[in-house]
Amino acid sequence: MTRTTSTWPPTTKGYFAIGAERMSKSLNLGNLMRSAHGFGASFTFTVGATYRALEAHADTSKSQLHVPHYNWDTLDDLALPNGCKLVGVELLDTAIDLPSFRHPLRAAYVLGPEMGSLSEPLLARCDYVVKIPTSFCVNVAMAGAIVMYDRVKSLARFADRPIGEGGP
Q1: Which of 152, 142, 117, 121 is nearest to 16 (CA)?
Q2: Contact 30/56 with Cβ under 8 angstroms?
């Protein structure tokens, strides 16, 4: 498949970051960082990640050379740019379905840990909480890629989908 210069990289206004709370697996962090690089994230981050997660061996695009990564030890350390909205990604009844969510121009998306949920203090700090409409939790790196795809699809300038099957 050949990319055309008119559609890649996507042109969007604003910026976004993506990260996770209490991440423990380096492969998941590496995959999340690689996807973030591919989708044009301005930075990646972790809050309270274990040392093992920070090894990030799965990142074959060498994102750390191109996209800054911030590791905050605690939620109190989390420092986002002024005007940046914190968007939690969690399967909660009260969360906004991702396909119905209007993405902020300046956003930092935060995912929960591999074997758990976002902490109550972090949820309280979120401006919005969205959920991916699935029957059960998906892998954290996969969830991040879905959210980033939805953002790019929503905010970038792509041709409208045709009414029939296929492309424009």
Answers
A1: 152
A2: yes
pLDDT digits (tens, 9 = 90+) for 39-88: 999 999 999 987 665 565 555 556 677 789 999 999 999 999 999 999 99
Does this model's pTM top 0.90? My answer is no
The answer to whether residue 166 sits within a structural domain is: no
| DSSP structural state of residue 16 | E
What lies within 8 Å, CB to CB, of 20 at 6+ separation is 28, 29, 32, 46, 47, 49, 110, 111, 112, 113, 140, 144
Q: How many domains does the chain have?
A: 1
Q: What is the Cβ-side half-sphere exposure of residue 45, based on CA atoms within 13 angstroms?
A: 23
CATH number at residue 88: 3.40.1280.10
